[in-house]
Known about the structure:
Elements: H1 5-20, E1 25-29, H2 35-49, E2 55-59, H3 62-75, E3 81-85, E4 90-91, E5 97-101, H4 102-105, E6 117-121, H5 133-144, E7 149-154, E8 158-159, E9 163-164, E10 175-180, H6 182-187, E11 194-195, E12 210-211, E13 214-215, H7 217-225, H8 228-238, E14 245-248, H9 252-264, E15 269-273, H10 278-290, E16 295-299, E17 313-316, H11 323-330, E18 345-349, H12 353-357, E19 377-379, E20 386-388, E21 426-429, E22 432-438, E23 447-453, E24 458-463, H13 471-484, H14 497-502, E25 512-516, E26 523-528
Parallel strand pairs: 1-7, 1-10, 2-5, 2-6, 3-5, 6-7, 11-18, 14-16, 14-17, 15-16, 17-18
Antiparallel strand pairs: 3-4, 8-9, 12-13, 19-20, 21-25, 22-23, 23-24, 25-26
Amino acid sequence: MRLRDYQQEAIDQTWEWLQNNDGCPIIDAAVGAGKSVIMAAMMTQACEWDAGARILMITHSSQLVQQNYAKLVNLWPMAPAGIYSAALKQKDLYAQILFATIQSIYKKGYDIGRVDLILVDECHTISRKEKTMWHRFLTDVARVNKGVRMIGFSGTPWRLGEGPLIEGDDAIFHGISYRISIMDLIKRGFLVPVTTQATGIRVETAGLKKTGGDYNIGQLTAAVDDQIETAVADFVERGRDRRTWFIFVPSVENARHVADAIHRHGISCEIVTADTPETERTRILNGMRAGTIRSAVSVGTLTTGVDVPQADMIVGLRPTTSSALLIQMIGRVLRLSPETGKTDALLCDYAGWLAQHGPVDLIEPPRARGKGGEPPTKQCEVCDTKVPIHIMECPTCGFPFPAKEKEEEPVRASNLAALSTDVQPVRVPIIDMKFRRNPGRDGKPDTLRITFNSMMQDYNKFLTFEPEANPWARKKSAEAWAQMAFLPVHQKAPASIDEAINRKAELRVPKEITVKPVGKYPEIVGIHYE
Length: 530
């Protein structure tokens, strides 16, 4: 099997990380990156270096155990591998390369014997709490095997309420050895882009209680149920030319109502929940691959370990505060399907995913609880721009925010950009500029913060001139200084922030700047003087 270039890079850089660091790294690989291939290649290579190397691949899902085992056997047909999973009715505890579900093996940490390397698929499922199956198993294995090393694999290496997996004194993982993102894979042609269509607003979640950090399922069920008929009629029309649909809802009750509504439109639809028997689940997924089943409604499942490349439409009727869950759900429709001519995937966002989390390729790990929060914001009902709560006029379209509550409107899918490349930049008039030193964090050098003042909002651009700063960053900062200066370009850029502030009179106040409203803060992509 020939590895993709980034798969080989991930392997090489992870071995190097282990050689140069203590602790446990994570390979942050987005959906479709081929984590099972990377794991299989690493297992094979480890056994080439040490013929007796004992390796465990542990995860929470029997489907992932099957997939990862099959990938290794495909790469290495004579691999000394076995499976330990009650769901799969196999318990080969002493295989040299052992694939296991944590639910089946967590009490076997002492019995399993020597272990050299542990690979954890979907490692974001590991909680920091001590009284868990993961904690018991990993603690027991480490007591028996003092030198065991562990590598995590995830496309979303963070947890709701806990933040990034590699941060904090109680972190189980200690660094990212390699990262390949959704946008990287789209640009390289290994995933299809996801698109949205302009349709209006989303299901309102204001006032819903939260349980365990996410929306209370009982209240969410009622909120979604009231709008199911309208939503189904809308996405059935939008999906006429789409082959296979995944629909995500909060509860079994919602799923039944959605399936019934879809059936009334003469379209096949099945329901998959965490309690669906494995044989039934396999039948449904195979039917979707073959084209005999048009759609499936998922309740709390089908977010990992599911490979239906033919799926080209996803319907979001399951609002969530979990950015990791959002990425996993959207990831179900990003895989390539050359045999069906799939060129993109359509997202019907009735759950407010993009309004709450932003473009999927720019989602950042949430902060851990107790470590501060994001400033309050509100959203323009005309153009969907997210702005600070105190702003009374939208800086993008000029919409005046009313003091009274807006009237209730029927549910429609969001028209926000699903990828940052689809976000349209806007031009903002500038009235003044301000300059100040911005202290560096975590040992990074200070920067010069240039604040562009508009009538309604400020926008910041950061330049660096300090000698210890990255040379590339200093070069780009010098180019930006030359662009903004009155004097000819051949004038030398400042050699420090203090010098830059002393020379601020050399810079012109632009007439307008172009801003791209993506990510946590708007990005300045152009400065205009005419």
